[in-house]
Amino acid sequence: MQTQPNSLPSQELPVRVLNGWLMLLVNLTVLAIGVWLVIASILALEQRGLAFPVGQFVGGLLLIGLAVLLFTGHFTLQPNQARVLILFGAYKGTERTSGFHWANPFYSRGSRISLRAHNFNTEKLKVNDKRGNPIEIAAVVVWRVNDTAQACFDVEDYEQYVSVQSESAVRHLASSYAYDQGEENEFTLRSSADEVAGALKTELQARLAKAGVLVEESRITHLAYAPEIAQAMLRRQQAEAVIAARQKIVHGAVSMVEMALHELSEKGVVKLDEDRRAAMVSNLLVVLCAESEVTPVVNTGTLYT
Asked: Which CATH class is domain 118-225?
């Protein structure tokens, strides 16, 4: 019967290692005993004329070989570093404590993993936003390895995995939001930076959890329209800004004219019929809404001439 491959995620396990300095003393002692046995065997043959002690000589060589083998079990770890220990292809655990350590010499200790925070800056990606407008977008991702077993065994190259998945997440994010001018209460890439950053972090964490990676922060670093439509979109934004400014000017002018007419009528300064009231409103609006200064015309006659 054919067995199915194990698809469950790996899980980091603690491993017990010995103090490196203590084992260094033991290793030196074993080496010294082995050297002494070899030298004593040679001296017994040359100086005393005794029969060559083959057993003692071979025992000394074995102790020297054992000491050399034990020396290979030493390794060091810096702060925020970990080492994955593998024995003949079987995962035995991960050591995270910094310092000088000793472990089984037959452990494969080539997998040294940094637990420090990493910055990854995506390239400027050209994608279409939710409305189909081509835009350029880039982001920075702050991440660190959280589970060394998953980082080593569940993906081929966890750093390359972070790179590819980050770019994929940024592309998906850009296509899920409009650059600007979204619908009412809709988040946009330009005006909702915190909400967009939160959504990017959530998606990245879901993608990178398989590699045992923890996403600490993600933020958009570059956002712009693509060059082929940048000028057209700039003119549109300028037109929208002019329209919005005009709306405020007109609203303020109407309020000022209404206030002026109300004050004149209430205080009885002058009585105006409908035609003169309309003319006064028209003149005041021209003065208040004009872009350039208005040159007044002084009427030296009566109000109705």
From this structure: alpha beta
